[in-house]
Recover the amino acids of this structure.
């Protein structure tokens, strides 16, 4: 299976359409859309599929762990999530953070679950634009939380958020980082819906995915 990077899939690509005339999707001229070709079919990424916009969902380690452990609310989220992926209502990209953080929990099949959901879709390496977003998030963290003791995972979390925010319409993260993102205004700039690991947020994400499935 080919691994596809999202580095050339800007949010504007969501305005483009794919045509389906022979049971295979082909991009229209200058569509600027990447896709995953699997078993002879093209799985469009960041495009309008049969009249329904395909959105990208970034799942952080907490969500993957909650699903694997069948925690309350997460066990109800999983079947809806899988259905949303199957009907191309969403794409679920992988990141370097997933690989690094999953290495700490070899007892849990976190990467196996992620591979099933992503189909090989990955976030790119950071460029100048993403590094500027990371600096913005880092500055807000230092300015607004001067008494907070930094964590070893902070740098990786901020780098991943800076990559995902411009590309993913739906994004999960812990409650603290969600607060940092909202203070930055980047979620508003990129029209990104944020979800923490709290039960009410998990349930809200499930309802959002159900709505996307219904419209797919």
């Amino acid at each position: 299976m080919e691994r596809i990077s999202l580095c050339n899939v800007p949010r504007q690509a969501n305005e483009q359409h794919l045509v389906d005339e022979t049971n295979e999707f082909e991009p229209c001229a200058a569509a600027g859309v990447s896709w995953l070709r699997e078993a002879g079919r093209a799985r469009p990424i960041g495009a309008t599929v049969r009249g329904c916009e395909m959105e990208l969902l970034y799942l952080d380690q907490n969500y993957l762990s909650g699903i694997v452990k069948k925690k309350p609310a997460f066990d109800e989220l999983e079947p809806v999530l899988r259905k949303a992926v199957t009907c191309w209502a969403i794409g679920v990209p992988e990141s370097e953070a997933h690989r690094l953080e999953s290495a700490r929990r070899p007892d849990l099949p976190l990467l196996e679950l992620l591979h099933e959901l992503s189909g090989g879709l990955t976030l790119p390496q950071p460029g100048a634009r993403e590094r500027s977003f990371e600096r913005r998030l880092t500055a807000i963290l230092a300015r607004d939380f001067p008494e907070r003791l930094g964590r070893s995972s902070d740098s990786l979390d901020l780098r991943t958020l800076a990559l995902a925010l411009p590309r993913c319409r739906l994004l999960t993260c812990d409650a603290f980082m969600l607060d940092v993102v909202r203070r930055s205004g980047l979620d508003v700039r990129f029209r990104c819906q944020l979800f923490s690991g709290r039960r009410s947020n998990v349930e809200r994400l499930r309802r959002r995915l159900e709505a996307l499935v219904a419209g797919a």
Summary: The chain has one domain: 56-215.
